[in-house]
Design brief:
The protein has 143 residues and is of the alpha/beta class. It contains 5 helices and 6 strands; from the N terminus they run E-H-E-H-E-E-H-H-H-E-E.
Length: 143
């Protein structure tokens, strides 16, 4: 039996829209990362970007379970000496919930040029509106 290997010319991409209202952040991010990577397709090839485009709406209604809003921090470095900054996720979800979802998905993708290419197919919006109606996105059932 032959093994199917996808390449850039044989990949067919679809657009999906995910309503994130009421979903836990980590579970949402893992499912979205799998679709971006293409693991939901029978043509999945590890060294080729076979994934689909994903639009996440209502990122401001994503929930964090347990004590994570107080104990979990988003950390980044400014590049200067002593420039490590911490933002609690309670503040992050209130002000930049789209960035919180984006970073959660980014952490679940490969850390190489292939992962960066996959991440370019992700769009995150705070509200229920998005400007990708021309692509005719299909609703993606996660759970």
């Amino acid at each position: 039996m032959k093994t199917y290997m996808a390449n850039a010319q044989t990949v067919e991409r679809k657009w999906y829209v995910v309503d994130a209202a009421g979903l836990p952040l980590g579970r949402l991010a893992s499912k979205v990362a799998a679709v971006l990577r293409g693991k939901n397709k029978p043509t999945f090839t590890p060294n080729v970007d076979t994934g689909d485009f994903v639009i996440v709406i209502n990122s401001d209604k994503v929930v964090l379970t347990g004590k994570k809003p107080e104990t979990k921090f988003y950390r980044y470095h400014t590049g200067y000496i002593g420039g490590l900054k911490e933002v609690p996720y309670s503040k992050m979800m209130a002000e930049r919930s789209d960035l919180a979802v984006y970073e959660a998905v980014r952490g679940m993708l490969p850390k190489n040029s292939l992962g960066r290419a996959m991440l370019k197919k992700l769009r995150v919006y705070k509200g229920a509106e998005h400007n990708h109606a021309a692509q005719k996105p299909e609703p993606l059932k996660l759970f």
